[in-house]
Amino acid sequence: MDNARLFPIETARLVICPFGSSEGDALAGLMNDPYIARMMTSIRYPFGQQTAEEWICERQFHGTLGFCVKVTLKDGTMIGFIGIGGDPVDTAYAFGREFWGNGYATEAMRGFLSTVMPAFGLNEITAGAMFDNAASQSVLRKLGFVKTGEDMHKTSGRVEEAPLFLYRLRNAKIGTS
Fold this sequence. Notes:
Blueprint: E1 9-10, E2 14-17, H1 24-31, H2 34-39, H3 49-58, E3 67-73, E4 78-85, E5 90-95, H4 104-119, E6 124-130, H5 134-142, E7 146-153, E8 162-170
Antiparallel strand pairs: 1-2, 2-3, 3-4, 4-5, 6-8, 7-8
Helix pairs in contact: 1-3
C-alpha cells in the first residue's frame, strides 16, 4: 500500500484523515481543557488557536511515521485526534470532552490501527494511559493492548510525576469487542 494514500479511513460513524491547514481553531476548541492536559504529554493548558496551529503543523502526515490525524463524525465535525510515532512506535489519542462515553475512541483506534499497522509493517505498538484515566485504560484493553508495566510521567497539567501505565499491542491481536 502506498502510505500517501492511507487516508481517509472510514468507520461506521467516523472519518480519520489528515488535518487541514486552517483547523487550529476547531482543535483548540476540543483540547483547551485542563483535564486533557493532565492526561496528555503533547497537549498543554491553555491550548489556544495559535498553539493548536503550530501543533498541527509539526505533526502533519507526509507518508511516514510521526504524525497526527483528526477524527471527525461523518458530518465533518472534528471530535479528536490520533497520533503515532517514536521509537518504539507509540500511539496516543484524545477526544473533546463532549464526545466521551460514546465509543468513539475505541472505534477510531480500531480503524486506525487496523489500517496503519500493516501499512507500515508494524508487528507491535505501544501506548500509555495515566493511572487515573480509567476510560483510556479501558479503550486500550478493548483493542487488545496488554499492560506491560508502569513508569513515572509528568504532563503539563500535573505538578508532579504520576504513574503512567504502559501497554503493548501485537498486530494480529487488535480486539473487536
